[in-house]
Specification:
mainly alpha; 0% strand; extended
């Protein structure tokens, strides 16, 4: 798989180093940023230990301003 990722990165013209771990990390971070819960991410990544999945929660360090009320969702916020 790593060889396929390396070829795809080279073909895309991406200048940064990227590995399959890069994609796995990005996937987990984006899923969390888009509102999925940590258990869903754990299941999607096939992580046996939740602590392993929890390393991706650093993307959520937005403080209180990052919280949304369910009322915001109802009102289109």
């Amino acid at each position: 798989m790593q060889d396929a990722v390396r070829r795809a990165v080279l073909a895309s013209g991406i200048a940064k180093r990227a590995t399959r771990h890069t994609f796995s990390h990005s996937f987990a971070a984006h899923v969390l940023e888009n509102g999925s819960d940590i258990r869903t991410v754990q299941e999607l990544r096939c992580d046996k230990d939740l602590a392993r999945t929890m390393i991706y929660t650093h993307v959520l360090n937005r403080g209180p301003a990052g919280m949304q009320s369910p009322a915001d969702w109802l009102l289109g916020g």
